Amino acid sequence: MRIRFWGTRGSLAKPGPSTVRYGGNTSCVEVRADDGTLIVLDCGTGAHDLGRSLVASGERPIRGHLLLTHTHWDHIQGFPFFAPLFIAGNEWDVYAAQGLGQRLEDTLAGQMEYEYFPVTLGQLDATIRYHELHEGAFNLGAVQVTARYLNHPGLAMGYRLEAGGVAVVYATDHEPHSRHQPELTGSDQVLPVHHEDQRHVEFLAGADLVIHDAQYTLEEYPSKLTWGHSPAEVAVGFALAAGVKRLALFHHDPLRDDAALDRLVEVCRRGAVAGGLDVFAAAEGQTIELVEQETVTSHAARRPEAAITKGVGAATTTILLVDDDPDILRLLTMTLRPEGYRLLSATDGNAALEIARAERPDLLLLDWNMPGRNGLEVCRALRAESDPDLHNVPVVLLTAQVGEEDTAAGFAAGVTDYVTKPFKPAYIRSRVQTWLRRKRAGTEST
Ligand SMILES: [Zn+2]
Ligand SMILES: [Zn+2]
Description:
By secondary structure, the chain is an alpha/beta fold.
C-alpha cells in the first residue's frame, strides 16, 4: 500500500517561502493498495496536483473512491479542480457522513453555484456516484474501510483502511472528547477516561500509520477549545495508547511555519520515544510504503451499502432538553429547532424523568446540577427502567465539571456521552447527529 500526501495544511491553503517544506495545500491524501484500488482521502487544494498526476499517468479510465471526512472548505475546495472528474469515461465514487437535511451531492454543488464558480457539478463529465455513510465497515477492492464519527463542530468521519495485513487510519478534524488530558508519560500510557476517547484509541489500535489532526500545540490549546482540532501532544498520547507504529502529524495550522513544525515534531518525539512510536509531520509530496502481505481474505466482501444510511426523518425525532438554566435551554432550542426535531424541555430532574416516561424521547441532553434529582440520578433512574426504549436511550450529559473523576462518575451513572460546558452550538448539533445516527444504525441492524 502506497500513501502519498498531496495536501497537509488545515483550515486555509498557505503557500509561500515559510511553508515550502511541509507544504501549503489543504488536506488531500492518496492511497493506492497493491490490488490497484485508488482511494483519495479528502479533496482540499492538494487534489489539484493529484488530479494532474493521475491524468498524466495515462491510466484510462481513471477509477477511484473519494472518502471525505466532512465538507468544510479545506476538505472540498479541490473538488472542482480535480481533473479526473472532467474526463468522460472516468468513474468516481464519493463518500461522506450523511448529515441531516442536505444531500452530499447538493452540498458539493453548493460551492459550485454560479456566484462562486463557473462550472456546475452537473457539467462534470465523469460518472460520479454519491454515497452517504453511517459508521461501519465495507470493502473497496481489497481494502476494508471502517468509518467512525469524529468529534468536530460539523459531522466528520474518520477512516481506517486495511489491506494485506497493514492498516492506515485517517483521523483529521478531531478534538479530544475530554477536556482533561493525561500528561505524556512515554511508554506508561493509560487509557483515557472518556468512553469516546477510549473508542477513538480502539479505532487507531495497532495501525502501521495514523494520520492525525495535530493543528495545535498543548500550549495553544486552551484558547482553541471546541474549535474541533487536537494538540499534537495529545495525538501522540492517543497513538501511544493505541500501540501505533508511525504517527503523521497532519492538518498543520496555517500559522505554523516550517521551523515551528520542526520544533513541534521535536517535542512530540521526546514524548514518544519510550513508547517506540515514530512521529513526523506530514509533508506535501512525501510518500510512504507499507508492505502488504499476501493474505487470504476469509471474510465475505461487504459492499459499501452496508454503511450507507437510509434517510432519518428529523420530524419524527424527539429530543428532551433538561437544564435549570433558561439561557442554556434557549441556546439548545435555537441550535436544534432549525433541524426540524420535536423538542421537549424540563428544568428539573423529576420533571425530566416524568416527561421521558411519557414521551420516550430519542435522545436526552441533560444537565448535571439541577433542583430535585440531578442529572446523574436521572440517568441512573432511566438505566433502571425495564422498557428498552428508556433503558437504552442515548443520554448526553452537559456539564461544567471538567475533572477526570467527574467524567468517570458520569460514565459510571450510565451516560452515553459527556460534553463539557461551555460548548459551541455547532458541536451540539454534530453530537446530536452522531448519537441519533448511531441509535438508528443500531436499531436498523437488529
Ligand atoms: Zn479541516
Ligand atoms: Zn473541519
